[in-house]
Design a protein that fits this description.
The complex is a heterotrimer. Chain A is an alpha/beta fold. Among the domains of chain A are: 158 residues, P-loop containing nucleotide triphosphate hydrolases (Rossmann fold, 3-Layer(aba) Sandwich), CATH 3.40.50; 72 residues, no CATH class. Helices cover 33% and strands 24% of the residues of chain A. In chain A, the strands form three sheets. An eight-stranded mixed β-sheet of chain A has the order 8-9-10-3-11-12-14-13, with helices on both faces. Chain A starts with 5 loop residues before the first strand and ends with a helix. The relative contact order of chain A is 0.12. In chain B, helix 12 runs antiparallel to helix 15 and helix 14 packs antiparallel against helix 15. Chain C has a single domain, classed as MetI-like fold (Orthogonal Bundle), CATH 1.10.3720.10. In chain C, helix 5 packs across helix 12. Classes of the chains: A alpha/beta, B alpha/beta, C mainly alpha.
């Protein structure tokens, strides 16, 4: 197999706050091949946005990438090695901040954010911002850049682009603004676009239009996407392969069809069962009990075990790293659940845990702490 | 509750007796228009082109425009639509948080639109609301207990109902003396009345010392006196203060909505979004309402938490016999929780039907488009998407007739011309493309090829199309090179020509559609505002 | 449902460990800030002195029926009755401070032209200045809060009428306004209490505008709408929701404002519209010293320093509270 466009290995990003270290991303590995759309799915607090920003090295203090390796197209975006004194230090072949900014961001990897209004400057015209972006990143000047900008606007389906080039962001609807951002992302013909919940703020009919547009553009330019979302519906529509995140970790990684039809991890399964369906009437939703714990103090063993319907005693002790449970058309299906045969830790023999006492105890201590105040 | 309302015009019996399945709310031709500006000098425009150079009068945003529907007790009516369609405005107008511009809101036989001042305020105990944003819907400076009790305090609850009679059910063990019981009038604040009678269970016993005692439920007290002839006299009254009773109810409700009564003394910031929505639920339930408007109550929550809250809402509905108007943009949620569904577009209800009927047999092109657009969590589902073109028009100047006609993929051909089906489809597509300027000026033949292919409208329609193509085509014979302004003018001219000749002539533009017919999947009638059903 | 409820309880502590809206949190934040802490120290000292002198003078009025016998002052050998003009020959007028060659330890800051002990006058002046600052700010705060909250909550025509009239007042230069108010209220014989009321009224517009803009944003909160939907009476909504939630920035402003009013009233006294002799007031003392600048500069320096330090104390404290209440800095 050819080398993937982007390879992430054991990436760890942490936030050092007053109350403790938040392990927002805790050892995730995945790959993005050329021309595919890879989904990064999870609920809020799962660490998916932090993971995607880490790929661009856009993590601000108090956050820091503390481990792992990110390789893009043969270049090392992030990598550590052990120095002579045993301290971890940045590897020499790691791209400098200057080269990151000049060569990678925008040119090779572009980002589309959730809120297009915040990404556009309200006091400049849409066309002006797009032209400036093109001038900065490509060898085009003045009229040529403007022509290119109009061409890009047309490309992303903005009607009457010459006219709208002169308009300000507030004169655009949400869907149109998102199109402008896509135009901006595409302007330098990057190989990879990170889309961070790009359709979450949009109405469902507009979302459909944008997904269509992305499909068309992807076919035309062969761009790869990392699609960050919480919506499994969108995942099913657009992604080729999916990573499901829970509390800073990837718990399941599979081709999209496999994920929905051969679901391996109980969390993915629970997510699917807790969703109301647009295509059929579900009489009783099965919510996931409890809520996601804080990443500051994750549960021992498998992080999902306090909420997992299949949790056994062994799950509280052994931490599972994703292992290949199946292979479909050359793509691995990885799962981090001790139930799977790939893990040989005695799940079947392990006694079931009575989830309740554990949970109640936690609740009691929490409540007690509050009352003491 | 009843004394405040009943004493005036409406007879009290009528509003008290609403059985399951009876109409509890009837909205008729409700309108809510907003002036687009407000203030002392609003509406005063400087207009140098006229004399005097000022003009008054503001544009009206027609957020809700002539909406009618009714809701039965115990059911959930889902109200779905995209942002800006007026669904939240409708919910707030029903609650009279906004002044209706016109129309009536019959609630239990009384028109809320007519009420004002103190009578409206008192009526509010019967209709409650749950808000979308779990952050801003709870006052950060109040404890959860205060938040839940506030509506009760506002309505002086708990309150004794003068129409409820009070009595006691005496259970005496090993006592031969006659027992006389006197029950205070206000014990219905503690004991739930049944058929207008509140009955207190009393147990009178003689304890080891020979003293006679009477035990009554919590919050009540019993005074026992033995008269000279040996008769036992028991006086039952409410022991707890109203504050205690309110606190009890608040704790009871917190428990009911899936929180803990220990949460009474916590502040909202100590809770997660899902828990905050539960506090919202408890607050709404505190005054024992019949009807709750839920404005996107779960759209700010994560999927798994969403399911928890939805389940709780369903349980509460069952237990308290609640009626919900459930406003949401998410069709999946609507499908899960509603009994009937109304679809709104640009201030109108375009379709209203039983849930199964609406989802399985949608009759309005907009509903169809919405349903097709939802991403289905199933990779093998080959649904179309991006089926709707263009954007929602401005509610200041909405399209005439059917408001969806400017985007409708099924716009009906005008009767004035003879169109074959394919000819009309091509013409319609061309008309919209010209209007939105989605293509570049090209040579006449290219345009014709692109939009019409092998069909060509005949007769008068054909002439109009030809003229329009000529106007927008590049490299026209009469001029070599057009200035940008002239191109723009030509496009505008072509757009006007096409719209006036075709779109405006269609029945969709001339009459507002409103049709009712039999449902396929239920007994209810199916309402669709589409002329395809003429 | 019970299991579900219990499992979520643990999260109760998750949202944030401290209540960002509680007073205790604000105070601890203020104390963390060094500048604010210094401001607080100064304010505390000034408050202590003025409380001490207030009790002292009132106590002597109660016990002896007159101000001249200063009960506590006598306990402290350094202090004397600030208003008593000593008979000729008892002390020299215009005596320089102690570190000066002609100074003496009995009058550490010297004496004024009438021979009164200057230290006593400065100390007792704190009482006047602080009460001026606090009371006139309170008048402005109260009036401004009522007008601003009502205008902001009801909006529309109520808002227009109230705020436009407030803006008219706002458009007049404050000092002119204050002098006119003071003269009108006092009916021609100015004194310090009229100055307090005058300054208070003149600052109502400022507070009204701040409160109103806060109320406008709080009014949009869903919990206000929730309270309305629950049938809570308007005045309860304003009192229980609107005002408590729009008060924080006003508190900051009010603290800063105390310093400003002290300065303005000192200015008024200087111009002769405030405290009248022999009341020991810093502004009034400045006015008197004005004529003796060349012979005894210290007469001007001491009250000037007192005003400077007091105002700086309140300003530092105000800034500190502002930082503590600002969530952006707090992160």
């Amino acid at each position: 197999m050819t080398e993937p466009l982007l390879r992430v290995e054991n990436l760890k990003t942490q936030f050092f706050t007053e109350t403790g270290t938040v392990r927002a991303v805790d050892g995730i590995s995945f790959e993005v091949n050329e021309g595919e759309i890879v989904g990064l799915v999870g609920e809020s607090g799962a660490g998916k946005s932090v993971a995607s920003m880490s790929l661009m090295r856009l993590i601000d203090s108090p956050g820091e990438i503390v481990g792992g390796e990110i390789t893009y197209n043969g270049e090392t975006i992030f990598g550590l090695e052990e120095g002579p004194d045993g301290e971890l230090r940045e590897r020499e072949d790691m791209l400098s901040p200057e080269r990151m900014r000049r060569e990678i961001r925008g040119n090779e990897i572009a980002v589309i954010f959730q809120d297009p209004m915040e990404s556009l400057n309200p006091v400049f015209t849409v066309g002006g911002q797009l032209r400036e972006f093109i001038e900065l990143n490509r060898d085009l000047e003045g009229a040529a850049a403007k022509e290119e900008a109009i061409e890009m606007l047309r490309e992303v389906g903005i009607p009457d682009p010459e006219e709208r080039y002169e308009e300000y962001p507030h004169q655009f609807s949400g869907g149109m603004r998102q199109r402008v951002l896509i135009a901006m992302a595409l302007a330098c013909e990057p190989n990879l676009i990170i889309a961070d919940e790009p359709t979450t703020a949009l109405d469902v009919t507009v979302e459909g239009q944008i997904l269509d547009l992305v499909d068309d553009l992807q076919e035309k330019y062969g761009t790869s996407f990392i699609w960050v979302t919480h919506d499994l519906g969108v995942v099913a529509e657009i992604c080729d392969r999916v990573n499901v995140m829970y509390l800073g970790e990837i718990v399941e990684q599979a081709p999209v069809d496999e994920l929905f039809y051969e679901t391996s991890h109980p969390y993915t399964n629970a997510l699917l069962n807790s969703m109301p369906r647009p295509d059929r009437t579900v009489d009783e939703l099965e919510p996931i009990e409890g809520m996601m714990p804080e990443a500051i103090n994750p549960p021992s063993g498998c992080r999902f075990h306090p909420r997992c319907p299949d949790a056994k005693e062994v799950c509280t002790r052994v931490h599972p790293d994703p292992k290949v449970v199946d292979t479909v058309d050359g793509d691995p299906h990885r799962s981090a659940c001790l139930k799977r045969d790939a893990f040989d830790v005695g799940y079947d023999e392990s006694p079931p845990i009575d989830a309740e006492p554990d949970v109640v105890a936690a609740a009691g201590s929490g409540a007690g702490g509050e009352d003491d105040e | 509750m009843s004394d405040s309302v009943g004493s005036q015009d409406a007879p009290p019996q009528e509003e008290e007796r609403i059985e399951m399945g009876d109409t509890v709310l009837e909205v008729d031709s409700l309108k809510k228009h907003f002036g687009s500006d407000s203030g002392l000098l609003a509406g005063l425009e400087f207009d140098p082109g006229s004399f005097p150079p000022f003009s008054t009068g503001t544009d009206q945003v027609k957020a809700v425009d002539d909406v009618s529907f009714d809701i039965e007790k115990g059911e959930t009516l889902g109200l779905v639509g995209e942002s800006g369609c007026g669904k939240s405005t409708l919910g707030r107008t029903i609650l009279r948080l906004l002044e209706p511009t016109d129309g009536s809101i019959e609630f239990k036989g009384e028109d809320l639109a007519e009420l004002s001042g103190e009578r409206l305020r008192q009526k509010r105990s019967e209709i409650q609301m749950i808000f979308q944003d779990p952050q801003s819907s709870l006052d950060p400076r109040m404890k959860v207990g205060q938040i839940v009790e506030e509506p009760m305090k506002a309505h002086g609850m708990p309150e004794s109902d003068p129409e409820v009679e009070t009595t006691a059910e005496v259970e005496a063990t090993e006592l031969s003396e006659p027992i006389e019981v006197e029950v205070a009038d206000d014990i219905d604040m503690v004991v739930d009345p049944e058929n207008e009678v509140a009955t207190v269970p009393v147990r009178v016993t003689r304890d080891a010392d020979g003293e006679i005692t009477a035990s009554v439920p919590d919050q009540l007290e019993a005074d026992v006196a033995v008269s000279g002839e040996g008769a036992i006299h028991v006086d039952i009254s409410v022991a707890a203060s109203k504050d205690t009773l309110r606190r009890d109810r608040a704790e009871f409700l917190l428990d009911k909505v899936g929180l803990d009564s220990n949460h009474y003394n916590r502040y909202p910031h100590e809770f997660s979004g899902g828990q905050r929505q539960r506090v919202n639920l408890a607050r709404a339930l505190s005054v024992d309402p019949d009807f709750i408007v839920c404005d996107e109550p779960v759209s700010a929550l994560d999927v798994s938490i969403q399911a928890q809250v939805l389940n709780t809402m369903e349980e509460l509905q069952e237990e308290f016999g609640l009626t919900y108007l459930f406003i949401a943009h998410d069709l999946s949620v609507i499908r899960h929780i509603s009994d009937r569904v109304a679809v709104m577009y640009l201030g109108h209800i375009v379709e209203l039907a039983d849930k199964t009927e609406l989802f399985e047999n949608p009759q309005h092109p907009y509903t169809e488009a919405l349903l097709e657009s939802i991403p289905v969590p199933d990779p093998r589902d080959e649904g179309a998407r991006g089926v709707l073109e263009g954007e929602v028009p401005s509610p200041i100047d909405p399209p005439s007739g059917c408001r969806f006609r400017t985007r409708c993929p099924k716009l009906i051909a005008p009767d004035a011309y003879e169109f074959a089906e394919r000819e009309w489809e091509a013409t319609r597509a061309f008309m919209r493309a010209v209007k939105r300027r989605t293509f570049e000026p090209a040579h006449e033949s290219e345009i014709r090829e692109r939009f019409f292919g092998d069909v060509s409208p005949r007769g008068e329609a054909g002439e109009i199309v030809d003229e329009a193509i000529r106007l927008v085509a590049a490299g026209r014979e009469d001029q070599d090179e057009l200035e940008p302004d002239e191109t723009r003018e030509a496009w505008t001219e072509a757009t006007e020509l096409l719209l006036e000749s075709f779109a405006e002539e269609s029945i969709c533009a001339q009459e507002r559609p409103s049709y009712e017919f039999e449902s396929e999947h239920s007994d209810e009638t199916h309402f669709a505002a589409c002329h395809l059903h003429r | 449902m019970s299991i579900e409820s219990q499992s979520e309880v643990g999260d109760g502590s998750g949202g944030g460990t401290e209540n960002q809206y509680g007073w205790r949190y604000t105070i601890s934040k203020v104390l963390e800030d060094t500048t604010a802490r210094w401001g607080l120290y100064v304010v505390c000292v000034v408050l202590f002195i003025s409380a001490y002198t207030a009790i002292d003078s009132n106590l002597s009025v109660i016990t002896f029926g007159r101000v001249s016998d200063f009960t506590f002052a006598e306990a402290l050998p350094l202090l004397e009755d600030p208003e008593r003009i000593p008979p000729p020959g008892e002390t020299d007028g215009n005596q320089p401070p102690v570190f000066h060659a002609d100074g003496s330890i009995t009058h550490p800051l010297g004496t004024d032209p009438d021979g009164r002990d200057y230290l006593s006058r400065i100390v007792y002046g704190a009482q006047v200045s602080v009460s001026v600052g606090i009371f006139s700010t309170l008048i402005g705060l109260l009036g401004g809060t009522i007008i601003g909250a009502v205008a902001g909550y009801y909006g529309g025509i109520v808002d227009d009428i109230l705020m436009r009239s407030v803006e008219i007042v706002y458009a007049i230069p404050p000092l002119v306004l204050i002098i006119v108010f003071t003269v009108l209220i006092s009916g021609g014989s100015p004194d310090i209490q009229f100055a307090i009321v005058g300054v208070g009224i003149a600052f109502i517009p400022v507070f009204a505008r701040i409160i109103r803009s806060e109320v406008l944003s709080v009014r949009e909160m869903d919990y206000i709408e929730a309270a309305r939907a629950s049938g809570v009476k308007d005045y309860n909504i304003i009192l229980r929701h609107i005002i408590p939630n729009s008060f924080a920035p006003v508190m900051v402003y009010a603290t800063l404002q105390i310093g400003v009013t002290i300065l303005i009233v000192a200015g008024l006294s200087f111009l002769g519209y405030g405290a009248q002799p022999p009341t020991p007031d810093w502004g009034e003392m400045l006015r008197v010293s004005h004529g003796h600048m060349l012979s005894n500069i210290w007469l001007s320096i001491w009250p000037g320093l007192a005003i400077l330090i007091t105002i700086m104390g309140f300003n530092l404290l105000g800034d500190g509270i502002q930082d503590a209440l600002d969530p952006q800095i707090d992160d």
